[in-house]
Amino acid sequence: MTKIRVTLRKSLIHADKRQKATVKALGLGKISSSVEHEGTPQILGMVAKVSHLVSVE
User: Fold this and answer.
1) First-to-last CA distance in the chain?
2) Is this structure's pTM higher than 0.90?
3) pLDDT digits (tens, 9 = 90+) for 40-51
């Protein structure tokens, strides 16, 4: 599997509970925090749900 780096770019203030929970499950907390994950279908699905809040490399 390939590694992807997910970075939180926008605030979670106006996000709903499910989006906040998804960002927390990805391991992100503050803006500009980054984490590396394997590119599994589960992780890619989570990233797709919050794609307007994060950036992926």
Assistant:
1) 14
2) yes
3) 999 999 999 999
